[in-house]
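DATA SHEET
Item: assembly model
Revision: 1
Owner: S.N.
Input lines:
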Amino acid sequence: MKPPNHPMDRSGGRACGPAAVVAAVVTAVTAVAVGLAMPAQAASTLKASAEAKGRYFGTALTRGDLGISAEVNLAAAQFDMVTPGNEMKWDATESSRGSFNFGSGDQIVSFAQSHGMRVRGHTLVWHNQLPSWVSSLPLNQVQSAMENHITNEATHYKGKVYSWDVVNEPYNEDGTLRQDVFYKAMGADYIANALRAAHAADPNAKLYINDYNIEGTNAKSNALYSLAQSLVSRGVPLHGIGFESHFIVGQVPSSLQANMQRFANLGLDVAITELDDRIPMPADSSELQQQGTDYGKVVSACMAVSRCVGVSQWGVDDGHTWIPGTFPGYGAPMMWDSGYQPKPAYTAALNALDSGPGTSPSPTPPVSPSPSVSPSPTPPVSPSPWVSPSPTPPVTGSCSATLTTVNSWPGGFQSEVTVRAGGSAVDGWTVKWTWPGGQTFSSLWNGTQSVSGSSVTVRNAAYNGSIAAGASTTFGFTANGTAATPTLTCTSP
Ligand code: G3I
């Protein structure tokens, strides 16, 4: 029998209805969320509060969602990470062998880039939404088909995704690996093979194994833990574990934080990747309050684990979610109701971010529903639209680079680097510095890094190399160690 919170447990559905308790403070937040003029100090947003603690707050979006303006406005105001709901899956990208179509995924990436959001790539290898040509291949052709798929897709999105869910949902509930076509062809080694192929194609992307019902300590998470330990000890490029977190109201496992921490202790990032919390319909106010408690617990658990890089909700509002169609009688799993009104879960998530460990940047970031965009031909991506502007230093040479530390916490910090063109436009830029005290990157976005000892080189990503004369773009990073302000040099070919 499938467990009660199996994501793919389908048996009909019932539409969910809006039901939310809206407090005055929450109403004010909504006004910000949908872009109305509000005093800057009226409320934060999920992304601003998350960034203040060196984290992100993300959402899943599908191409269909992009056509719903109220939904995307809310997403752009509140979130700084996007996971494509379906558009990067195998059935969407290589529905027939060797014929690749990245059009839908590209639309999600463009949306993210133009709204200062990063992208979690989802997903390269999964038994579901897998074209039938793959599952019917002779087994001796599966490895090459898998590696070819990964190489093509990860190369296409190189420099454009923060991370990849390289292998999705590999486990059965009892901790055995699914007997899918990949396992049948390669045994458990398919996972290491997939990670290596993804790393070869995009060495800067964080590579994840992502699964559900691994949030608490249980047979499934124990099996994944053993696998992760083995992959790390063998030097396989695994960088993170994604905890999907499709919960039922009142059932967030009490071992969530400890479980994430044990994976983090292996030297891995951890992330809440697909959070939702479904309620038997109709939802009453005590269930909505309990849902708030649940969201608060999940976000607090992430904040308490220093290697928890962020939280993503699987969608935006109750009107656009996979839950009612898959779990009959359940609905209302999101932080906003189907009228885009924030629910207690939103306030709880925001409070958990704000009260989590870590120092806030100073001055308090202004609330901004849209990222600051400098006048370059390609809109630069800035995951920190709230960073206060610093005086623009004169540019000597083709370009300049200025580093601002936007946050720090014990053992780590987050910085943003502004790259500015001089009197002429630049087409490609390189920023170099030397770490003074053994600092190391834990993640970097909007650029590509190469590190040799303490020497760091960051080059533009595929989409932000062109900067008009006098204009700027930014890249950012989180790093381990003490916050530093080394001298940066910028050159352009
Ligand atoms: O594309 C077809 C379309 O041609 C057809 O007309 C239509 C008719 O039903 O179906 C369309 O496909 C649907 C697809 O989403 C794209 O919209 C599938 O039926 C539907 O089953 C599929 O659902 C997705 C589900 O993954 C499938 O596994 C959900 O949107 C998506 O949110 C969900 O996401 C997964 C994560 O990837 C992994 N973790 C669990 C999570 C929730 O199930």
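QC remark: The radius of gyration is 22 Å.
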